[in-house]
Amino acid sequence: VMQCSASLDVLFLLDGSYSIGKGSFERSKHFAGKLCDALDIRPDRVRVGMIQFSSAPHLEFPLDSYLTKQEVKDRIKRIVFRGGSTETGRALKYILRKGFPGGRNSSVPEVLIVISDGKSQGSTTVPAVQVKERHVTVFAVGIKFPRWEELQVLASEPTDQHVFFAGDADDAANGLYSTLTGSVCSATAPGCKVESHPCERRTLETVKELAGNYVCWKGSKQPNAVRASLCPFYRWKRVLIKHPSRCFRTVCPEPCDSQPCQNGGTCVPEGLDKYHCLCPVGYGGDIHCAPKLSLECGVDLLFLMDSSAGVTLEGFLRYKAFLKRFLQAVMGQDSPMNVGVAQYDNNVRIPIEVGQHKDAFSFMKSIDALNFSGGGTLTGRALRYVAQHGFRSTPVFADMQDDLPRVVVLLTDSKSQDPVAEAAKYARGRGLFLIGVGSSFVRAELAEVTGNPKQTIVYSDPQNLFNRIPELQRRICSVDSPEGCQAQSLDLAFAVDASAGVGLENFLRLRDFVRSSHLHFSINRDVTQIALVVYGSQPHTVFALDTHTSNSALLRAIDQAPFLGDLASAGSALLHIYGDVMTVQKGARPGVHKVVVVLTNGGGMEDAAAPAQQLRDNGILVFVVVIGDTQRDMLLRVAGSPNYLVHISSYEDLQYYQDLIIERICEEAKSPVNLCKPNPCMNQGVCILGPGGYRCECRGWEGPHCESRVLRGDSPRSAALPPHSHVQRSSTGLRHFSRAPRHTKRH
C-alpha cells in the first residue's frame, strides 16, 4: 500500500568506512533494500543508484543501470564492504561535481539518502548546504550508534522528517514514504494519514569521569627524596544518550481496528479489508467468536470454588475468569440449566444461588463481586454443606417436582485439610453427581471425591485449564445419558504385557482388568467380538475374535491366559495382531470398527511405533494404557495421539480408569468406518468400495473374499458384499455371509 509512485531520482550514499564495520554495513544494505520496497521503481517512475564512500567515493551503479525493483535489490545484495576512513564531505563534493550519475539532469526531483554513523573525519557543513541549495532533498539515516548532530546537519529541513534510524527498517521506510508523500509522491492510500508522535534518538558517547583521588608519589627538590600526595584518577565511560524528537509516520486503518473478535478472540488481519479471528476454546460459533458450546442438557449445576489460602489470590482470580468464560460459552437465553456458585475455606458460602440468574450478563456481574477469603481448606466440610443446602427445589407449581439432575463441579488446587472420602460418599448418596477440576497436584484427591477418574478433569498448567471447557461441558451433560457399547459393532483385541518386567502379581491385575472390561460389551457375532493376545519376547494368541460367542465362555478363557515371564516386545505383538488376529480368516468383520488396547508397564515399546502406524493406516485404532513411570514421547508415537494414551500411576489405580477407557473405545465405535480397511480380501485380493458395500477383485482365487483357489478351467470372479457382512461358521464347518442385524448402526 505504502509505495511512492512518481518520477523521481533516488541516490543512496552508503557509508563503507571502518567505523561502520562489516556487520553494520550489511545492515545498511538490508535497510536500503527495505527502502526500495517503498519506491515504485520503473523506468518512467522511480530510478535508483548507489555510491559507497569511505576514504573516497565509489560508484556502485548509476541510476539508469537497473530499472526494476528486483534488479536493484539483487544488485544491492552483491555490494562488497570496502573499508577506510569516513570522508562524508568528500562524497558530497563528488555529487556536487558529477551530479546524480545516470540521472535525468534535474528534470525530475532528486532525493539523496545518506546512510552513515555520522562520524566524519572532516567537516560536512558546507558541502551539505551546497547540495541542498541545488534543490536536492537529503535524508540522513543513522546506523549503529550514530552522531545525530552531524546527521541533522546533513538532512533537509525540517530535520525531524528527514532523519531516521536504520535499526528499525520498517519504521524508517514508513518515515521516508510519509515525508515524500507530502512533496513529490502521489497522495496516501484511502483512509491513510500522516501522524506525528514523540520518539527519541539514541547514541553512545565516550565521556571522561573522575574515578577518585588516590595516593601518588611525587619528586621533591631535595636530592634522593620523594613525597606522598593525592592525585586525581579518571576513567573513560560509554554513556547512552537520548535525544528527544518527533516522528512522522503514515497510519492506515486495519480491519482489526474495530475489534471485531468477541469473547477474547484475537484478530489477525489479511490485507487491507479482511481478517480472521483466532477464537478461545468454546467459541467459534461464527467468524466473530460467538459461543459455540451450549448446555442443552437440563441440570442444576453448582460450582464449588476453593477460595482458601492454598489456592492463593492468583488461583482464585483464575477460577473466576474460568467461570466467566465457561458461562459465556454455554449459557444462552433458552438454556435449560440452572447455575449457582459456592465458595469455601474454613466455612462455606453460597453467594450465587442455583437458578438465581438466567442470563450471562447478570451472572458475570455477580462473579466479579466474589472476594478471595483465604483460610483453611476444608473440602470435606464443603461437600457435606452443599449436599444439604446447595440445591433448594423451587418448582413453578406446587404439584410439579423439580427433578433435574444435580451436578457439583469442585474447583480446587490445594489438598484438603479434612477427610474427603466419607463426605463425597455422603454427597453422592444424596444423588449429587460430582465432577472434580484441579491441577495434577490434587489428581488422587479429586478421584477420591468423584469416585471415578473419568469424572475428574486435570490440567498441567494454568492456561490448560481454559482448554478443558469443552470436556467439562461433555462431563456435565453425560450425567443423564450414560455412554455404553452394548449396541455397537466392534472387533476388540487386548494385547497384555506378560513379561518379567510386569511380574506375575501385576499381570494378574491386568488380566482382571480385561475380565471386568468385557462386561461392558455384548459378546456375540453380531455386536462385539474380543480377542486376547499376551506377549513377552513372542506373542501368544489366547483366543481369536471368533473363538467365543458368549460372555460366560469369554470369562473362562480369560482366566486361562498364561504368564510368560521373559523380555517384552510390544512391536512383535502388534505385528502379530495385524497379520494373524485382525484378519477375515480369524473372524474380523469388514465394515466393523477395530480397536487394539495395549496394557503395559512401558517396557519393550521401542519397536512398537512402526507396527502401530501400520495398524492405524489400515483403519485399526491403537489404544495404549501404561502403568508406572515411562517415557511419554515414545508411547505417544505408538498411540499416535494423546487421546489414545492413558497413563496410570499404579496397578492399584487401574480399576478406576476402566470407565474412562471403555468410554473412549465406545466413542470410536460410533464414528464412520472404511469398509476396505483393513483389507477384507484374502490372497492379495484388492478391495474396491462400491455403493453400499465393497467387492473383492481376485487373481487366481475366487469367492467373496478370494478364499478359494480357482480350479483349472474356471475364471476369476469377484462378489459384491453389503456393509457389515461377516463370516459365520455353521455346524458343518462351512462358511456363509450375512448382513449385521437391524440394531447395528449403519455408516
Automatic annotation (TrEMBL):
Superkingdom as given in the UniProt entry: Eukaryota
Signal peptide coordinates: none
Protein name (database record): von Willebrand factor A domain-containing protein 2
Keyword Iron in annotation: no
Region (Disordered): 712-747
Subunit structure of this chain's protein: Forms monomers and multimers.
MF (Gene Ontology): calcium ion binding; identical protein binding
InterPro entries in the cross-refs: ECM_Assembly_Org, EGF, EGF-like_Ca-bd_dom, EGF-like_CS, VWF_A, vWFA_dom_sf
Alphabetic keyword roster: Disulfide bond, EGF-like domain, Repeat, Secreted, Signal
Pfam families membership: EGF (PF00008), hEGF (PF12661), VWA (PF00092)
Gene3D superfamilies: Laminin, von Willebrand factor, type A domain
Ranges where the EGF-like domain occurs: 253-290, 672-707
Subcellular location: Secreted
GO cellular component, one term: basement membrane
Domain VWFA: 9-180, 300-476, 491-665
One BP term from GO: calcium-independent cell-matrix adhesion
Ranges of biased composition (kind: Basic residues): 736-747
